[in-house]
């Protein structure tokens, strides 16, 4: 009945929340403190960007919905402005930090990071849900899939070509566009698929691994230089972010954090009860404003003149320019059932 008094790893839920809040507040202020130490200041352009971001939200939402969005997030206007300012200092600090990193060392570490954190695998997916509706299969349908699974396993045991089995039995359309296998790190695939691939040696084939999508028979592949080249910039960015967070942890560990007496008197349950009321009120306003905007857009569309014959659009209501068609072809992505 009283969640905030319940135990979480030896602390009450309320104390856990207070500790997290204190850590977050410390981190935000560390940005400004360390930036000051390094002589990093916000320029007029930086301040203009902050104002522009805020104005763009107001222009997108409208003043009423903007205020409701802040309220729903638990922000006052003053707090929101302060957080945006401190975030700008974090960007300054991050930029200054990355400039101190050796490019050669970063390239070497990035390659090592890629080989350590990334996996490459292909799989045969035997689904246990309807691919169109996402609904679970009937008992008869499931029995048929399990029989197929057994058939695939028998063929693998007999030495059948894995790629051929993917084409014959696999029901992951993403494998068609990734015939060499998916390249991924933790969090980019469903956990069962990631764990199953990680447990394999290169070249090994797994027993069936079950996820919410169905049964995966996974074959781990070796990462190549071409794979690294494709992901190099993302890997470097991830590595820089990790190094920056480690540096922030050093800053926080060295900081002296003083709390006023009022901090220990915060009644988390009371604060959250008030926040819930504010959130409910703000949500109601957001829904009303959203409905109003939708009505206005529909009314505007209804009032628009019908296209002349020369400007006719396809039956599905879409119109794509030649440049747009090329862009669509270049950015087309096939979703993988294993993708998170």
Sequence-ordered SSE layout with sheet pairings:
Blueprint: E1 7-8, E2 11-12, H1 13-37, H2 44-61, H3 63-72, H4 77-99, H5 103-117, E3 119-127, H6 139-157, H7 162-169, H8 174-177, E4 182-184, H9 191-198, E5 209-211, E6 214-221, H10 225-254, H11 268-303, H12 322-331
Antiparallel strand pairs: 1-2, 3-4, 3-6, 5-6
What does this protein look like?
- With 340 residues, this protein is of the alpha+beta class.
- The protein is 61% helix and 8% strand.
- The protein has helices spanning 13-37, 44-61, 63-72, 77-99, 103-117, 139-157, 162-169, 174-177, 191-198, 225-254, 268-303, 322-331, and strands at 7-8, 11-12, 119-127, 182-184, 209-211, 214-221.
- Strands 4-3-6-5 form a four-stranded antiparallel β-sheet, sandwiched between helices.
- Residues 311-340 have low confidence and may be disordered.
């Amino acid at each position: 009945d009283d969640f905030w008094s319940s135990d979480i790893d030896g602390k009450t839920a309320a104390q856990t929340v207070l500790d997290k809040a204190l850590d977050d507040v410390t981190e935000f202020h560390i940005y400004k403190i360390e930036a000051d130490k390094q002589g990093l200041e916000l320029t007029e352009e930086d301040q203009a960007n902050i104002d522009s971001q805020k104005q763009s939200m107001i222009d997108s939402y409208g003043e009423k919905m903007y205020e409701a969005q802040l309220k729903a997030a638990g922000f006052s206007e003053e707090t929101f402005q302060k957080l945006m300012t401190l975030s700008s200092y974090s960007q300054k600090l991050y930029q200054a930090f990355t400039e101190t990193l050796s490019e050669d060392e970063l390239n070497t570490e990035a390659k090592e990071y890629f080989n350590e954190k990334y996996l490459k695998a292909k799989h045969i997916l035997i689904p246990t849900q309807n691919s169109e509706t996402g609904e679970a299969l009937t008992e008869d349908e499931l029995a048929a899939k399990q029989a197929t699974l057994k058939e695939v396993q028998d063929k693998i045991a007999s030495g059948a070509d894995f790629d051929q089995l993917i084409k014959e039995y696999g029901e992951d359309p993403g494998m068609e566009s990734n015939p060499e296998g998916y390249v991924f790190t933790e969090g980019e695939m469903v956990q069962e698929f990631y764990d199953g691939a990680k447990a394999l040696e290169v070249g090994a084939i797994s027993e069936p691994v079950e996820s919410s999508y169905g049964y995966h028979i996974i074959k781990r592949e070796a990462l190549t230089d071409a794979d690294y080249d494709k992901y190099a910039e993302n890997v470097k960015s991830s590595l820089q972010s990790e190094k920056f967070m480690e540096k922030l942890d050093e800053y926080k560990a060295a900081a002296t954090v003083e709390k006023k007496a009022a901090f220990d008197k915060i009644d988390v349950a009371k604060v959250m009860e008030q926040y819930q009321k504010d959130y409910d009120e703000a949500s109601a306003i957001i829904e009303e404003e959203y409905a109003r905007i939708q009505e206005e857009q529909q009314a505007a569309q209804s009032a628009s003149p019908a296209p002349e014959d020369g400007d006719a659009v396809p039956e599905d209501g879409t119109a794509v320019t030649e440049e747009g068609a090329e862009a669509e072809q270049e950015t087309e992505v096939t979703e993988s059932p294993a993708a998170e």
